[in-house]
Specification:
The chain has 230 residues and is an alpha/beta fold. It has a single domain, classed as Uracil-DNA Glycosylase, subunit E, CATH 3.40.470. Helix content is 41%, strand content 10%. A six-stranded mixed β-sheet has the order 1-3-2-4-6-5, with helices on both faces. α1 runs antiparallel to α5 and α5 packs across α6. The radius of gyration is 16 Å and the shape is globular.
């Protein structure tokens, strides 16, 4: 089954990286790639949509917002090469989901165990703010990924990812509560399928201000492991 899932996910990846559905996002990601930040001026940016990655047999899916302009849009892998990813993969490593605590490039040896990391929107958006229309245009990729994975737990990083995951489960015809519970760090939502586990996003806006601490993020992934094992 793991092999068949890997094949199906590879097909989705092949479609994602060629996507040009959203003109604003296409223009932005390519503009950023053509004009690298000075600290990365010697690097060739990926400048394309970012697919999910991880263990095809994952029982935990992690859903973020979108690639960072000089993170995933540069390296070609979600949460790779930026501060948010530093926090995320350290926490996943401590919880046993990752073989190493850092992620700096797509070929740095990072491997995930029991987890799949993806995003609601696959292209880097201006000001890190995709529109709702762009979210919905991208939605079928997440629907298809989660349909293949059939995870027991979905960790959502931030309100935007929570709303996207909720809509995705509805599209998958998974029974969800009539009223969506309010987002909050550590909130768990049971559904007729996976448990949604909410976390603040590990963005600098949250980590620099202390809104999100490493123990708080660790608690999320240790809880995800418990839920996935159950």
């Amino acid at each position: 089954m793991r092999t068949s899932k890997a094949v199906a996910l590879a097909r989705i990846t092949a479609e994602v990286v060629e996507c040009r559905r959203c003109p604003r996002l296409v223009a932005w990601r390519e503009e950023v790639a053509a004009n690298p930040r000075s600290s990365y001026r010697d690097e060739n940016y990926w400048g394309r949509p970012i697919a999910g990655f991880g263990d095809p047999g994952a029982r935990t899916a992690v859903v973020g917002l979108a690639p960072a302009a000089h993170g995933g849009n540069r390296t070609g892998r979600i949460f790779t090469g930026d501060r948010s990813g530093d926090w995320l993969f350290r926490a996943m490593h401590r919880a046993g989901f990752a073989n190493q605590p850092h992620s700096v490039s797509a070929d740095d040896g990072l491997a995930l165990r029991g987890a799949w990391v993806t995003a609601a929107v696959r292209c880097a958006p201006p000001a890190n703010k995709p529109t709702l229309e762009e979210r919905d245009t991208c939605a079928d990729y997440l629907v298809r990924e989660l349909s293949v994975l059939q995870p027991a737990v979905i960790v959502v990083l931030g309100l935007f990812a929570y709303e996207a995951a909720w809509r995705t489960l509805r599209q998958m015809e998974v029974d969800v509560p009539v009223r969506r519970p309010k987002f909050g760090h550590g909130v768990e939502v049971g559904t007729g399928g996976p448990v949604i586990l909410c976390s603040f996003h590990p963005s600098q806006q949250n980590t620099f201000t202390g809104k999100l601490t490493e123990p708080m993020l660790d608690a999320i992934f240790h809880r995800a492991k418990e839920l996935a094992a159950g």
